[in-house]
Specification:
- With 182 residues, this protein is mainly beta.
- It has three domains: 7-36, no CATH class; 38-65, no CATH class; 69-181, Jelly Rolls (Sandwich).
- It contains two helices and 15 strands.
- The protein has helices at residues 4-7, 21-33, and strands spanning 8-10, 16-18, 46-48, 58-60, 76-79, 84-85, 93-96, 104-107, 116-120, 127-130, 136-138, 150-153, 159-166, 169-176, 180-181.
- It has a six-stranded mixed beta sheet, with no helix packed on it.
- A hairpin with a 5-residue loop joins strand 1 and strand 2.
- The N and C termini lie far apart (92 Å).
Amino acid sequence: MASLDDLLTTQKNGVVAINGIQRLMADFLALISTGVTTFSGGATGLTPSTASTGAVTLAGTLAVANGGTGVTGFGVVTSKTASYAILAADSYTDFDNNGSVGSVTFTLPAAAVGLAFGFAVMEAFDLVIQAPGGVTIYAGAGSATTSGGTLTSSDVGSYVFLKCRSSTEWIAQQLVPSWTPA
């Protein structure tokens, strides 16, 4: 049986350690000192914005398919004076027809659950929201577009906030009259 003197060894600066534990701690410190060597956010849309060692900070936009919105910011207001095919990346943008001198049509992107857009009529010309084929826009109790139909208003101050609920449905979560489904 080993004596207590055999188990103890004097270290630098007078620190006493038990043989074996010292080796284990050295192995542990070597392991944790290597840090993160690689990192991948996969298809999430997130990537390291700092070096991939030590504390890793993520940056980017969380993709819709991974529970995110797929957008980089909220509260963006964009005026269009000509028809516009909305991009999924425009999600949570408020569009209007400020400055237009005629009808402006906004074509919704392919339906993806979680996408959302606002529309405000700022000029007394038709602001038309066009649904993709096979998609219906629900605009209040008993009011809906036909499949692939439109929602239209020319009343200044009218506003609608649409959110995609399925691959075939958008619903008005906020609606300030008057909008006409077709």
